[in-house]
Amino acid sequence: MGFLDSFERQVERLVGGVFAKTFTSGVHPVEIVAALKKDMDATARSITRTRVLAPHSFHVGLSALDFQRLGQLGREFVSEIRQTLEDYRIIRGYSCQEPVAIRLEEKLTLAEGMVDVRSDQVGSVVWVPTLTWNSVRYPLTRKSTILGRGTDSDVHVVAPGVSRHHAEIRWNGKRCEVVDLGSTNGTTLDGEKVTRAALPDSCTLGVGRARILFQVVPLSSAAYDALAHTPLNSAEETS
């Protein structure tokens, strides 16, 4: 089943019998998703050989009739579109500076059945390594970050099998590596035990029984400048 078929079934379940009556004329939700995917593909740009950055903010222009018709379906409808595009982004391997956001807008210049998708231009970005543990994301801007159960560790990991100073993440400005610090229970990279290893852009570290997500994510230059002056313990919660 393709993305569009799956999306149509999701929307049909969401609005029930209203689905068939609402979309006998005018723009169809599947056409909106197709236009969003096309715009994302067209505006995504390669930053490095392995990293492609796509816009995260999309404006969907609709005629007055279509805007009114789709507005009757409520926020859940827009949420379904957003999630479908987010799933597509992951499959395509695109990165975004922020979670995908979609806004439906009325455009009086459009005829019924027409869709005009516009995405906000991707600005200058800095790729930043991050650790996510216990729903908290820790951006790594220093050369060395210590993980462990000790309160003096940079990332305080409280879980069974975690040593006081368990592992170290080293960042040279271009790549990260993990180094086990002689821990009792060892460190794993995507399930494989390691003593020292380079980290791919996305992987899972095992520190004792804790599982910590490592990712390299894009931030705007302004956000990175602010981050560089923020203590590591001022990490942000993730949803």
TrEMBL record:
What Gene3D superfamilies does the entry give?
Answer: 2.60.200.20, FhaA, phosphopeptide-binding domain (DUF3662)
User: SMART domains of this UniProt entry?
Assistant: FHA (SM00240)
What name goes with this protein?
A: Unannotated protein
The family database entries (SUPFAM superfamilies) matched by this protein are listed as: SMAD/FHA domain
Pfam families in UniProt: FHA, FhaA_N
Domain (FHA): residue spans on this chain: 145-194
Which PROSITE patterns does this chain map to?
FHA_DOMAIN
Naturally occurring in which organism (per UniProt): freshwater metagenome
- Read off the lineage from the record: unclassified sequences, metagenomes, ecological metagenomes
Instruction: State the CDD domains in the record.
Output: FHA (cd00060)
